[in-house]
Amino acid sequence: MTTEQVTRALFDEVMVPNYNPQQFVPVRGQGSRVWDQEDKEYIDFAGGIAVNALGHAHPALVAAIKEQADKLWHLSNTCTNEPALRLAKKLTDATFADKVFFCSSGGEANEAAFKLARKYSYDNFGPEKNEIIAFNQAFHGRTLFTVSVGGQQKYREGFEPVPGGIGHVPFNDLKALKAVISDKTCAVVMEPIQGEGGIIPADPEFVRGVRELCDQHNALLVFDEVQTGVGRTGQLYAYMDMGVTPDIMTTAKALGGGFPIGAMLTTDKCAPSLGFGTHGSTYGGNPLGCAVAEAVLDQINTPELLASVGDKRALFVAELEKINAKHGIFKEIRGAGLLIGAELTESWHGQAAKFLAAAREAGVMLLVAGPNVLRMTPSLIIPDEDIKQGMAKLEQAIAQVIEQAKAIEADSAA
C-alpha cells in the first residue's frame, strides 16, 4: 500500500469505530509543530494528551531509542534489564516511593494500584476491608476495573455488571467523603487535578483532609498522576506541591514522551502484597520503553525545566485573557502548570468541539475536557513564539465560531 492510498477514509473502513479522529492525518512532527499529508503545518497545544512532554522528535529521546534498539528490545519478566533498573532507581530517588511496578499504560498502572490496595488490605486487615472510594467525574482508565473506579457513568454504560465495592462522592467535598468512609474502606483514589472531568484542581485543604481520613481508617491514599505527572504542573509530580504524600501513585503518559510505558509507585509498607505471581504485565519493564523513559526523566527532572513550566503557563494564561477580553468566551481558566482548562461561558456550554474543529482549520491542535472546556497540554518546552502564534490562530478560530453563530441567529430571526 502506497502513502497516497492511506487516507482518513481508510480509518472508517478498517478500524473499530470507538474513536472519531480528526480529518487530517499527521505524518511528521518537530518540536511543537506537526505536518499532515498535505504538508499543512499545525502548532501543537495538545501534546498527545499530555504525553509529548518534550515535543516531537526530541533529540535526546531519538538518541535513546536508537541506542537501545541496537541492544535489547524485549526480554519478558523472566529477566530484569539495565534500563528498567536505572529508571526504577531514578523514580524512587525522586519521589516518596520505595518500589516500582512497570507496565504499558496509565490504565494498567491504575489497575495495578487498585489491585494492590485491595490485596494490601486483605493481607493486613482481612477480606471485609475491600471498599474503594473515588470521586464523581474522575477518570482512571478504560479497563473494566478502572472505568468502575472512574466516576463517569458514560464510560461504564453497556459494560455492566461492573466490579462492586466501589463508591463515589463529589470532588472537593470532604464532608461527603467523611460520611461514607469507614473501616471497610481499603483506599481512596483521586487525581490531584481532574483531567477528563474538566481540569478541576483539588483544594489543598481537601487533599489534607482526605489524607487524615485515610489515616484514621487505615485506608490507603492512591494518587492517579497519569496526566499531572512528569513535570506537567511545574513539579515532577503534583503531590509535591500539596503537602501530602500518597501511599500509591500511578504515572504514565509523559513518562515515555510518546513511547508506551506506565508505572505504579509505592512504599515498602505496601509493596510486599504484590508478591511473586500476584500480578504482571508482558511489556512491563520493557528495555526499549525504559531507556526512553530514563531519557525523558533526565531531561525533565531539572530545576530549570520545572521552573520554566510556570513561566510558560503565565504566557498561556495572559494570551487566553487577551482573547477573553475581546470575545468574552471563557468563564474560567484553571489548572496548574501546562495542564490548562478554559471553561466556556454558559451560553457556549456543550459546544467545545466546535472550537476544536475551528482551531484545527486555523492550524492549531487543541483538546477538550468534556463538552464545556478547552484543554491545552502542550510540550513543557514549547517555545514562547509558538505559544503566541498558536494563540493568534486560536483567536481567529474563536472569532470565526462566534461569527458563524451570529449569522445563524440572524438567519433564524429573519
Automatic annotation (TrEMBL):
Highest taxon of source: Bacteria
Subunit-structure text: Homodimer.
Gene Ontology cellular component annotations, sorted alphabetically: cytoplasm
Official protein name in the record: Acetylornithine aminotransferase
Residues modified to N6-(pyridoxal phosphate)lysine: 253
Gene (name only): argD
EC category: transferase
Extra remark beyond the main annotation: May also have succinyldiaminopimelate aminotransferase activity, thus carrying out the corresponding step in lysine biosynthesis.
NCBIfam families: arg_catab_astC (TIGR03246), argD (TIGR00707), PRK01278.1 (NF002325), PRK05093.1 (NF003468), PRK12381.1 (NF009047)
Cofactor descriptive note: Binds 1 pyridoxal phosphate per subunit.
Family recorded in the similarity comment: Belongs to the class-III pyridoxal-phosphate-dependent aminotransferase family. ArgD subfamily.
CDD domains per record: OAT_like (cd00610)
GO terms for MF: identical protein binding; N2-acetyl-L-ornithine:2-oxoglutarate 5-aminotransferase activity; pyridoxal phosphate binding
GO BP field: L-arginine biosynthetic process
Needed cofactors: pyridoxal 5'-phosphate
Keywords (A to Z) from UniProt: Amino-acid biosynthesis, Aminotransferase, Arginine biosynthesis, Cytoplasm, Pyridoxal phosphate, Transferase
Record-listed E.C. numbers: 2.6.1.11
